[in-house]
């Protein structure tokens, strides 16, 4: 269905779910499109699109249920993530998937860090992704308004629940193109008593991939594993990592356990490479910077790719790219998450063909100029059969194509 | 049991049976098509043995191409299909239909690849849950979700049901441990989702598929995360004079920031039945027993055991024992794992429920269950995944006594309604299937259910895949798509704006 490409005409700021539903029902009856917005911290991500109206969810805010002993928190979708994390921290808890903050990378410093609804709508995660999962792995239930102007719920407030289709997960990562969350419920978990990071220095990318695989495959319960090549190493924690490429392994838990596991890992690697450790504060700072892509927060619009591949394939992709393009890179998720900053052209074909040749994965052009994002599909295009299924799903949730039209893909 | 009403056979499928069987033989040669009543008996029921139905015909394909062709054929000819893995569903998810092809995936039984570097295993859907762990055990790895049927249940079925187990609080459900699948849609299209990498661009169709009970597609390959076994695991038995005290102990353990590998609770009747059956060394003079398993590095486990003992003492525990060897740990678990058959020994029949509740509602739900027990005149034994709130009440009855079976079903339905009332859900891990289908409106209103059916319509607009499961009614997709709002009908809403 065609959408009128007009300048934004109305911004709704609902205070409650019924108002949200009314705003959507109005848009449905007028056959007019809406941009779905929280704080706008990720507004620069996705294919550029135009919508006639805007629904701003930041007024639909407030934690409605928090029971620390039950490990559960429910909040209205527009609740600030910062507020939720502060509340959890007061009780020694956290969102274990440590949602990243895109603002520094996208130079969006004049807005809030984001809302809890958007955390799920964009399926955020962080360096603990391998061990602890992403937002999708911690959601327990949702309430939402569909593009039919109807309020729906799915899931609940308990961990074990297989009653009906898992729409909570099905709507995660849909970037506001299927339904608008009004309320979300997450599992929350205790924060680790302490943490440390082992730094294995001097490894090239391929050796680092091997070391990370050994560490993650050991019983040392490594929470995060990243590799910071020499070109980026100095840009982390004020240059205080030891000289040479740094392969970093995070250990969390009770103190005696962390010490014990750090000892085991040190013995595993010290014969080959220098191993040092970071204290808890330095460790936290480092992983926050790895999470938020510190080395590429340069205030420019130079293209930045976020690539997900099999952990063992990451360094091969980078090696192939380096032969043919200017690229600065580092690795999280044991090598499976690549952050690539392209020095000139975004090299979309090299990146996406390279991923396919290595067995699959996906690349998102998380930062690029508007013009570039009009030319290159920001999200990895799906194969025809999957694209058709996705389109059918879209039609079942948003038959008039009014939510964030085109943001995720031309026909979604 | 009183089998719920299943969808009426469609068109002339029953009359065309011989022709359909012949056509299927063209697609799946040899032993892959089973059509004699005698041979089909083996497939007439699943883990919910009270319901039985012979299928139209049984097909056991061996390749993705065959699965695709069978589905395409059925789609083109308006024939229903019921997918089946090992047939261990406790909710009747694989119950055949008179006019449906039963598509059995058991010949997809190969481990395709083990990739220790990326910590994944790629397997065919008929490989058993425990089969994956066995395939990677030589290097100390395992697959975390462990439903109690793990020796028999298939990973494809685990995906369909989003199977759980006793370690879910710490290690997640199937949905958190599956990285990718290959699946075939009802029209024969083959789709790959995810893989050895994490997350997917576009919609989380993998998330939707997991737990979709065979209504959306047929899984033909699964990529799962494998984990290194914890360095140590030790189990504790802790006895309490009341379920309330045991429940408070669980809350306090978690409140103290400890996430055990597993915490199980059993009530007096379940303890006694299990002890009589396997002699696990359970105390018989307590009202509630906790099995708490702590895993990780030895230093950590020792420290946490001390913490749990302290917390248990504060909650009036009357006994506490820590496993001193791997053998003893296994013995502690043996009683719990055998709880269902153990209860089966003390009663001619039992009916296993599967609600989940917020943990702190346990005392309320237990006392509610006692009242219901009196009302229905039937006894109930309780085993409880206390860490994640998943309750398995076992209702004891005798099917040979007139009316008892119906009373057991009513009792079970009352229990599940109670679970929903206190903020819980109908099913934690067994699935909706046929069994809880008609209770769905207790949890979801019409709009919720209609939207779920619309998801179904995106995958299978003719309701050919596993109809009669999960949803109380089938609605034609064309009707579901209608919108009742038309232009200008909705007045400009009175909402804060700027």
From TrEMBL, chain B:
InterPro entries referenced in this protein's UniProt entry, alphabetically: FAD-bd_oxidored_4_C, FAD-bd_PCMH, FAD-bd_PCMH-like_sf, FAD-bd_PCMH_sub2, FAD-linked_Oxase-like_C, FAD-linked_OxidoTrans_Type4, Oxid_FAD_bind_N, Vanillyl_alc_oxidase_C-sub2
PROSITE patterns: FAD_PCMH
FAD-binding PCMH-type domain ranges (all copies): 51-229
Cofactor(s) listed in the protein's UniProt record: FAD
Record carries keyword Nucleus: no
Xref: Pfam families: FAD-oxidase_C (PF02913), FAD_binding_4 (PF01565)
Keyword vocabulary terms for this entry: FAD, Flavoprotein, Oxidoreductase
Protein name per Swiss-Prot or TrEMBL: FAD-binding protein
Lineage, opening ranks: Bacteria, Pseudomonadati, Pseudomonadota, Alphaproteobacteria, Hyphomicrobiales
């Amino acid at each position: 269905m065609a959408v009128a490409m007009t300048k934004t005409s109305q911004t709704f700021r609902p205070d409650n779910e019924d108002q949200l539903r009314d705003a959507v029902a109005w848009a449905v009856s007028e056959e007019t499109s809406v941009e779905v917005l929280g704080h706008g911290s990720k507004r620069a991500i996705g294919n550029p699109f135009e919508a006639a109206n805007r629904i701003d969810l930041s007024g639909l805010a407030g934690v409605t249920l928090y029971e620390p002993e039950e490990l559960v928190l429910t909040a209205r979708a527009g609740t600030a993530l910062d507020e939720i994390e502060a509340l959890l921290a007061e009780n020694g808890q956290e969102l274990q998937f440590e949602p990243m903050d895109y603002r520094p990378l996208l130079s969006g410093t004049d807005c809030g860090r984001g809302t809890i609804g958007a955390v799920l709508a964009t399926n955020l995660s962080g360096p603990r992704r391998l061990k602890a999962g992403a937002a999708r792995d911690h959601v327990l239930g949702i309430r939402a308004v569909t593009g039919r102007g109807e309020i729906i719920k799915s899931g609940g407030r308990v961990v074990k629940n297989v009653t009906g289709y898992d729409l909570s997960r099905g709507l995660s990562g849909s970037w506001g193109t299927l339904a608008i969350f009004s309320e979300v419920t997450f599992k929350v978990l205790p924060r680790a008593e302490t943490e440390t990071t082992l730094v294995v220095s001097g490894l090239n990318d391929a050796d680092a991939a091997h070391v990370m695989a050994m560490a993650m495959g050991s019983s040392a319960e490594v929470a995060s594993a990243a590799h910071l090549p020499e070109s980026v190493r100095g840009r982390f924690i004020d240059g205080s990592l030891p000289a040479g490429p740094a392969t970093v392994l995070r250990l969390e838990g009770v103190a005696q356990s962390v010490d014990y596991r750090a000892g085991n890992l040190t013995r595993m690697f010290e014969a080959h490479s220098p191993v040092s450790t970071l204290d808890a504060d330095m460790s936290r700072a480092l992983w926050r910077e790895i999470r938020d892509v510190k080395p590429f927060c340069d205030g420019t619009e130079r293209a930045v790719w976020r690539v997900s591949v099999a952990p063992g394939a990451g360094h091969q992709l980078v090696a192939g790219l380096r032969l043919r393009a200017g690229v600065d890179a580092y690795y999280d998720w044991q090598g499976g998450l690549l952050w690539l900053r392209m020095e000139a052209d975004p090299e979309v074909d090299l990146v996406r063909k390279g991923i396919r040749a290595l067995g699959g994965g996906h690349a998102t052009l998380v930062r690029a100029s508007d013009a570039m994002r009009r030319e290159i599909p920001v999200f990895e295009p799906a194969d025809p059969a999957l694209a058709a299924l996705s389109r059918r799903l879209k039609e079942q949730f948003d038959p008039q194509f009014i939510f964030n039209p085109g943001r995720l893909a031309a026909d979604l | 049991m009183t089998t719920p009403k299943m969808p009426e056979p469609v068109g002339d499928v029953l009359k065309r049976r011989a022709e359909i069987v012949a056509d299927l033989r063209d697609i799946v040669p040899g032993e892959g098509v089973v059509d004699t009543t005698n041979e089909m008996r083996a497939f007439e029921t699943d883990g919910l043995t009270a319901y039985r139905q012979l299928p139209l015909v049984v097909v056991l394909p061996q390749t993705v191409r065959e699965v695709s062709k069978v589905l395409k054929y059925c789609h083109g000819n308006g024939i229903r299909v019921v997918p089946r893995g090992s047939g261990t569903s406790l909710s009747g998810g694989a119950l055949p239909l008179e006019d449906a092809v039963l598509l059995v995936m058991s010949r997809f039984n190969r481990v395709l690849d083990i990739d220790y570097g990326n910590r994944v295993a790629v397997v065919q859907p008929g490989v058993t849950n425990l089969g994956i762990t066995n395939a990677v055990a030589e290097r100390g790895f395992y697959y975390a979700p462990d439903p109690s049927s793990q020796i028999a249940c298939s990973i494809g079925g685990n995906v369909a049901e989003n199977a759980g187990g006793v370690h879910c609080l710490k290690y997640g459900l199937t949905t958190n441990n599956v990285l990718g699948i290959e699946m075939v849609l009802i029209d024969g299209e083959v789709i790959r989702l995810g893989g050895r990498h994490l997350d997917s661009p576009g919609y989380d169709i993998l998330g939707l598929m997991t737990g979709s009970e065979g209504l959306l597609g047929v899984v033909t390959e699964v990529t799962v995360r494998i984990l290194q076994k914890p360095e140590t695991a030790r189990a504790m038995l802790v006895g309490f004079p009341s379920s309330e005290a045991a429940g408070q102990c669980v809350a306090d353990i978690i409140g103290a920031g400890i996430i055990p590998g597993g915490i199980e609770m059993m009530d007096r009747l379940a303890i006694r039945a299990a002890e009589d059956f396997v002699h696990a060394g359970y105390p018989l003079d307590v009202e509630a027993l906790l099995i708490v398993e702590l895993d990780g590095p030895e230093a950590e486990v020792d420290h946490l055991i001390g913490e749990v003992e302290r917390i248990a003492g504060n909650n009036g525990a009357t006994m506490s024992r820590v496993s001193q060897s791997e053998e003893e740990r296994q013995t502690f678990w043996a009683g719990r794992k055998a709880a269902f058959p153990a209860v089966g020994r003390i009663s001619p029949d039992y009916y296993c429920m599967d609600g989940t509740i917020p943990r702190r509602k346990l005392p309320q739900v237990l006392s509610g269950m006692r009242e219901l027990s009196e009302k229905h005149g039937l006894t109930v034994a309780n085993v409880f995944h206390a860490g994640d709130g998943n309750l398995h009440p076992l209702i004891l009855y005798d099917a040979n006594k007139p009316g008892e079976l119906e009373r057991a079903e009513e009792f079970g339905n009352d229990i599940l309604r109670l679970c929903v009332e206190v903020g819980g859900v109908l099913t934690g891990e067994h699935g909706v299937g046929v069994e809880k289908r008609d209770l769905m409106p207790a949890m979801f209103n019409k709009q919720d259910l209609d939207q779920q059916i619309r998801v179904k319509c995106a995958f299978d607009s003719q309701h050919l895949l596993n109809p009669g499961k999960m949803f109380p009614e089938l609605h034609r997709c064309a009707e579901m798509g209608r919108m009742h709002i038309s232009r200008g009908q909705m007045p400009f809403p009175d909402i804060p704006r700027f």
